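Troubleshooting log. The previous structure file for this entry was overwritten by mistake, so regenerating from the original sequence record. Sequence copied from the archived sheet and checked twice against the printout by T.R.
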Amino acid sequence: MFKIRMAASWPVFVFCALALAGCGDSGNDQVKIVAGEIAKTDMVERRLGALALQFGAIQVSDERKVFEMLRAYLEENPDIYGAAYAFAPVELDGVVVKSSPYVFRGEAGFVERDLAVSYDYVSEQWYSQPVERGMAVWSDPYFDEGGGDIWMVTYSVPVYDGDSRLSGVLTSDLPAPEKRMPSLPIQNE
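Regenerated output below.
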């Protein structure tokens, strides 16, 4: 039986602060914005957890199948900007093989990209932290150059096989308000 440990370690209030920073809205409007952002993060955690269970149960290894599953996930979840499945690196014949199918919303529809071509995803916070902690985590806000090419936050869930070996990391991206990013000081723990 495979397991997923879920925990929202990224402070939801930071994402809410991003939504509010620089707003000229009245107090009631700001409360509505915060409530909406909290609802989005809760939705992402529940839905990505359910998708992670599917990935673990069927032991996905075919990249084309991964792209199809991620596209279907985004079609069902319009508030989510992008989703990836970053396979745990494997060594084949002395060569380390990496692959990370990523689907995101482009101007003309869904865009598919392999993040392993763009950068070394293993060193990125959205991959390394859930692997190191063995549980789901929210990233700090970041600009995803070479991926979705926007400011975002990522919720990442490590996926394990039936023998408790890491299969990969499944992610959901929420856009962060780009124009508000520089004015909000964010400190890592």
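The first helix runs from residue 12 to 20. Archived copy saved in two places this time.
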